[in-house]
Amino acid sequence: MKLKITNGTIITPYRYIPDGTVLVDNGKIIAVQQGDMDFPDSEVVDAKGNYISPGFIDLHIHGGGGYDFMDGTEEAFLKIAETHARYGTTAMVPTTLTSEKEDLLKTLDIYKTAHQNNLNGAQFLGMHLEGPYFALSQRGAQDPRYIRNPDPAEYEEILAYSDSIARWSAAPELPGAIKFGQRLRQKGIIAAVAHTDAIYEEVLEAYENGYTLATHLYSAMSGVTRRNAFRFAGTIESAFLLDMDVEIIADGVHLPAPLLKLIYKIKGADKTALITDAMRAAGMPEGESVLGPLHTGLKVIVEDGVAKLPDRSSFAGSVSTADRLVRTMIQMADVSLLDAIRMISATPARIMNVENKKGSIVIGKDADIVIFDQNIDVKKTIVGGRIIYAAPENQR
Q: What pLDDT is recorded for position 13?
C-alpha cells in the first residue's frame, strides 16, 4: 500500500513542481515535494519525466467500451469504469437517460452493487439522473416517449428509494420544476438546468431555488430568442450572467474553437468542468452503435469522432475520453495545461462536493493520480493508491 511516484513534473492547480515526488500510504497522499525522497518498502513508480497529474473527474458520462449504464447489468458499470480509467479518469458520475421510472430504479439498484465491487476502474461518485423532466423541444437524442413534467409523487418515490443520487438535470421552466429544485437542494443533490427552452427570468428563478449547474452548456438549451418581436436572453446567456457552474463537452466537435474560447473567457477554469458525456462507443472503433439500452436504445452511427443520428441530421452523443478533453482545450481553445487540468480535476471535485479528498495532489487527499506525456497520452492511472492501468511497455 506504499507507493513512491518520482521523476516527473507534478501539476498543482496553480503551478508545476519539476522533478517532483509524491508519496502514497494506505491510499492517501502523505508527501509532495521537489526532488527525491526516501520511502522504505514502497513500490517505486518512475514517471520518466512525464507529468504527474491529479486524476480526471468526469461529472457526466453514459458509457464506453461497448457498454451503457442503462444496459441493466453490473458488468456494464464495471466495464465502463475500466474503459475510461485507461484514459486517465479516476472518478466519474454514472449518468442515465430519460426512461420509465422502473428502469431508473433498476439502474439505481445496480449502481449500489457495482459501487461495492468496482475495484479495477474509475470510482463512482453517485448517480446523475439526466431527465426525464425536459422540454420536448430540446430533447436532443433523448427518447421523447419518456419525457414528462416533474411529478412530486414520482420524484419523491425515487428520492426515498435511493441515497445514491448525486445530481439531477431538468428543464427549469416546466410546471413544478422550481419545487423540484427546492427539494433537491433540501436533499443535498445538485440540481442542473438541461434540455431547456428557459429564458433568463426562468433560469434566474431556478438559480435562486437550487439550480447551480448548467448541463453540457450550448447543447440542447436555448440561446437568444424572440417573442412578439422582443428579444429574450436564453439559458446560455443566463449561465454566463449568473454565478453558475457550467460543464462542457470539450471533444472539439460539439463545440467549435470560438465557443470553447468564449466559455473559458467568461466563466474561467474555476467555473467550467470538462465532461465527456460519452456513450457506449467511447474507446471503440467507428461504425454503428446504440445510444441508451443495448436492446431498446437508439441506433446511431459513429464517425468524425462523434455519434450521429443515422440520417446525420444531428449529433447523438459523444465518444470522447477524458484525455481528449484536455488535449482539445489546449490545442483548440489556447488554454494552458494547468487550467485544462483544473477544469477536469479541481473544479469538478468542488462541484461534486468532494474537494476535501479529490481533485488535486495535496497531502491528505486520495491518491487519485494519472501520469501522461506532453501529448496527454496516459501512461499510468492510479486510484486510491492502486495502479489500475499501465500502458503497454512499447507505449510508455
A: 85
* Higher local confidence (pLDDT), 331 or 140: 331
Q: HSE of 37 in the Cβ direction (CA atoms, 13 Å)?
A: 18
Predicted confidence (pLDDT) per residue in 1-47, tens digit? 899 999 999 999 889 999 999 999 999 999 999 999 999 999 999 99
Asked whether 217 and 239 are in contact (CB, 8 A), the reply is yes
Q: What is the pLDDT of residues 232-278, one digit of tens each?
A: 999 999 999 999 999 999 999 999 999 999 999 999 999 999 999 99
Partnered with residue 199 across adjacent β-strands are: 234
Query: In the chain, what percentage of residues exceed pLDDT 70?
Result: 99
Q: Which residues of 123-146 are buried (b: 16+ CB within 10 A; e: fewer)?
A: bbbbbbbbbbbbbeebbebbbeeb
CA distance 72 to 278: 17
**Ordered structural domains, the chain, with CATH:** 2-53+360-395 (2.30.40.10), 56-351 (3.20.20.140)
Residue 31: Cβ within 10 Å count:
13
